[in-house]
Amino acid sequence: MTTISYVSISLSSLCIAMSLIVFLCVMTDYDRKTKLNRIFRMVILFNIGIIASDLSAYFIEGHIGLYAYYIVRITNFLHYAFGSLILGAMTFYILTFLETRTKVPRYLKDIVLSLCALSMILTIVSQFIGLYYYIDENNVYHRGNVFWLSQVLPMAGMFFNMGVVLFYRKRFERKFMFFFLSYMILPMSALCLALLFHGITFINIATSLSVLVLYIGVQIDHTHNMVMKLKLVDNQLEMQADHYKKLRLHIDEVKKARHDLRHHLSVIQAFIDTGEAKRLSEYIAEYRATLPDDTATIYCENYTVNSVLKYYAGTAKNEGINFTVHTEIPDKISIRDSDLCIIFGNCVENALEACRRFEGEKFINIKSMITGDMLTVIIDNSFDGELKRKGDSFVSSKEDGGGIGVSSVKSIVKKYDGEARFTAKDNIFQASIMMHLKPPHTIPL
Question: What are the pLDDT digits (tens) for 348-386?
Fold first, then answer.
């Protein structure tokens, strides 16, 4: 074997080891049973299949004998076949990922799958007529006259996937643009090099690096989701603790009122016996004023949103912030309770933080309504006029780095084909959120 062959075998072996490590890491993920995880495992296995078949062909190539005759042909066939399969699997992964955020037409999958099927058919035909490649009498691999077609078809599929990602770019965060595009750009660059040079495993290196980059992206997404969930749990525990505190105070007040009731009844009886109706009426009025408030504020029918608003309303009242709410959210709605909690919790919490830094009249106004299949939420609050920006977007002033709270809201809104806008004018900051609802949780126009 030549020096290039040794280098190629070493790099391919390293790529297999790296892919196996990534596969084992994916197998141990907490969400290993999800559809996305299963498809990603298929992508990694197909990548390992490409490299392993390529390595086997290198070792057996040039050997004479019945065993070598069949092994060389089988491994070369598998190399091309796995190339078609990995493109199909990656297409499924991208479109399945998009389906978690928006509706994706079925024909998008059909187009790329058709390309994969065509590539597979041509690979099979090539075994008999040497379309892509042929094996000579010395059991040595040679490129066929239309070898370029074996590279152009996968490249066309990758270009199509790239178009899909760019078309739906507003449905997911920018970091995923980098991860998905790297999975396409690196192999496409390798395909171009493969057309010009033979002997170096450019494609094996590129696909393995792409798998690694995509895995890093998956882990970043998992970390982001975990932070969101932990913050949600923390907010829920804080609200629950506040609820129990108020409930305990209410119980203590009721116990005290019951303890004092017999004394009040004695006084009332005395006023009745002496016929002092006016003084009795005044005494009863004073007594009623001392009784604990037994009315609960209900902002809307939805339990989750009502609980969040009640919690922050109490906080705002304690800090002297005018807190007004006009909401129309039913108990049953097609938006998950955890998503509603994150949206209202983060937006109202940011509004409270802004009011704390403002020296003038502090207020928070919350409005929400359902019109047709659209839930609209508008939150206005006073602020000091100083904004923290990241690019063209606002982030919470209390947050460091990327602003997990604001990014969480935007991520959830995109999932429901909605839009989140944040605007500021004078000393008023406004968060406007619109999300699509699914039937039957819609209100006719």
Answer: 988 998 898 888 899 999 999 988 888 999 999 998 877
> Locate tokens 């923290």: which residue?
388
Contact 406, 393 (CB under 8 A): yes
- Interatomic CA distance for residues 133 and 272, integer angstroms: 112
Which residues contact residue 385 at a Cβ distance below 8 angstroms, ignoring those fewer than 6 apart?
424, 426, 427
Nearest to 307 by CA among 316, 297, 317: 297
CB neighbour class for 116 (10 Å; exposed up to 12, middle 13-18, buried from 19): buried
Whole-model pTM: value is 0.60
The H or E element spanning position 374 is strand 374-382
Give the start-to-end residue ranges of the domains of the chain: 3-229, 303-436
Q: Cα 134 from chain centroid?
A: 46
pLDDT one-digit tens code per residue, 276-304: 888 888 888 887 776 655 556 788 888 88
Alpha helix (H) ranges present in 100-173? 106-129, 147-167
- At 137-146, the pLDDT tens digits run 888 888 888 8
pLDDT of residue 445: 42
Q: CA-CA distance, 21 to 6, in Å (whole number)? A: 23
Highest mean pLDDT among 229-233, 321-325, 389-393: 321-325
Are residues 125 and 80 in contact, defined by beta-carbon separation less than 8 angstroms?
no
Q: Which three-class secondary structure state does DSSP give residue 435?
A: strand
Architecture of domain 3-229: Up-down Bundle (1.20)
- Asked whether the predicted pLDDT for residue 175 surpasses 90, the reply is no
DSSP 372: B
Average pLDDT on 161-168 reads 83
Nearest residue to 112 via CA among 73, 47, 71, 158: 158
pLDDT at 434: 92
Check if the beta carbon of residue 116 is closer than 8 Å to that of residue 85. yes
CATH 3.30.565.10 fits 303-436, yes or no: yes
Give residue for tokens 């839930």.
375
**DSSP element (H, E) containing 245:** helix 202-274
Query: Does residue 42 register a pLDDT over 60?
Result: yes
* Contact yes or no for 159/89 (Cβ under 8 A): no
Cis peptide before 440 (omega within 30 of 0): yes
Q: Enter the DSSP assignment of 443.
A: B
Whose structure tokens read 């105070």? 249
